[in-house]
Amino acid sequence: MDRFEEDLVLALKEVVNNSSWQCVGEKKTLKAPCTKLYSEDGQHIVLIHTEDDQYFAMDSACPHEGGPLEQGDIEDLGDGKLALLCPWHLFDFCLDDGSSSTGLQNQVYDVQVYEGKVYIKTQNALSLIPMKDTEVAHCGKLSPQISGPSTSDGSLTHWAAQILGTPDPSEKVRLTEQVKTWWESGAITDIGEAEPPSQPNRKADLTVRDPGKIKRGKGGTLASRVALLHSLANIEQWAIDLSWDIIARFAKVNLSNGEPLPRGFFNDFVKVAGDEAKHYGLLEKRLTELGSFFGALPVHNGLWQSASDTSHDLLARLAVVHMVHEARGLDVHPQTLARFAAQGDEDSVKILEVLYNDEITHVAAGLRWFTYICLVEEKDCVPTFHELVRLHFKGYLKPPFNTEGRKTAGMGEEWYLPLVKPVR
Question: Which residue in 133, 224, 342, 383 has a CA-CA distance of 20 to 30 Å to 142?
């Protein structure tokens, strides 16, 4: 070895030892197309190994809805570049720079192979096995106080629990519309008390798979548009349940001033439930028009995870489900709309526009009640939101953001930009 090579080896060793490069293992053991690496900060990474023996790395959670990218497929974009496809909704992320044809952007990391070992540039320790969770104490939770069955078969929470237990989506929609009419007309006046199921029921013939096991085709075809509409219908069915769940689960919350939740809270989420039922109906009808039906494709139940994680804390539920996830729907709308418009599918475009306009009001409702409760509890709204999202939402919020849509809903940049991963 000449002097130049010796200096080079020493320099490389110094880089590895004194910088943020993390050794993740021997190259010979990292031959799988995708390997999940657990990060100490919770922002886990997927290591990608291509057929031509190259390595890439990016955040493992899809910036759309948090889908497990480590369970996705690697596909050629057609221009010599490779992309990793999210198994939930087929959003593509270029291995080189994390860009997506949908307009989303995923975080990528430099990868180097040195002396038979693979290194990823990140300041956080990485592991092939999950790291032990750090227990975080959170005081002042607004926890549900559900103590028994409904006090009246005609109460709002009784019907909320009934709808949550209804497996057929068409019947779920019908009941939602009926109960909404009863509530708004005054036929139902009692909020009542009823314990919701731990998870909503689904039809026995609906194929429910782990999110990563749902594989679909590429964009730009009728089949892919049907798959996306089917996925949206599945989301809307969960959204109906999320609206009724927040009504039933937190009906008996008392605020620090000793008062129950205002009636306006229930008015808003009954309206949200009605909107989501309308959305499902529109999407189901469109699927039929395109020669398909809901249930023709497998679905996942990953969207209920956030509800389970926040079942103990109303503020956390509002923050994560009704502000983070709902607002993310606003962010992806322009790209989704453009995809259908490019195929001349004007009927689907009209449906997507209805969904978008309603979802703005849903984000506004979540924000309104989060702010109201914070004021009553004498909490600073924005810092409390940041705290709860960091505690209950996996990873960072990722651009691009639909700034205009969020602003229309009342959500300024101070709410979400501090939750973006800092540039190092």
Answer: 133
